[in-house]
Amino acid sequence: MKREFFLSSKKQKDVSGTANVLVDGRGPFNGVVDTFVKDGNKVYVVAKQKFDLKRSAALSFSFEADIANGKHEYTEDSGLDISYIEGEVFDGWTRYIFYSGIYNTGNVTLTFDGVAGTLKAGFDLDVETDPGRPLNAIGAFRDVAGLKHINK
Questions:
Q1: How many CB atoms lie under 10 A from the CB of residue 71?
Q2: Parallel, antiparallel, or unpaired: how do β-strands 148-150 and 29-39 relate?
Q3: 78-91: pLDDT as tens digits
Q4: Domain boundaries, the chain
Q5: How many CA atoms lie within 13 A of 19 on its CB side?
Q6: 24-82 pLDDT, tens per residue?
Q7: What DSSP line would sit under 77-141, residue for residue?
Q8: pTM (2 decimals)?
């Protein structure tokens, strides 16, 4: 599993879409996509949700731009990466809980059009924050549009 998470510092203009995930034992995430970029041969999409004044979360998905549409096993050599992070502000500090996708525990189905700049994807796999304690995560990115191409 990868231990990377990409968050933009500001919302990307002209991007749209939603994402959701349900991780065992956690409340539901229903976010709005604020980043959808292609950097070299890698595509990154991030959705965020602010639950209240102190709590927020983000769902990140990255993949190779030349990936074939369809169903893919979530393996280390697939080029797929899914992560979820929750943050909570306390007196002068923020606690983050990071849930990274565990390879060989599920699959991702996607339809990506790099020319039209659109994406829809669904996943069902395990994530973990504590080694050896997997949690099931089922989610999707819906109606994502507005792919921005950036140079590396």
A1: 10
A2: parallel
A3: 999 999 999 999 98
A4: 16-150
A5: 33
A6: 999 999 999 999 999 999 999 999 999 999 999 999 999 999 999 999 999 999 999 99
A7: GGT-EEEEEEEEEETTEEEEEEEEEPTTS-EEEEEEETTTTEEEEEEEEEEESSTT--EEEEEEE
A8: 0.92
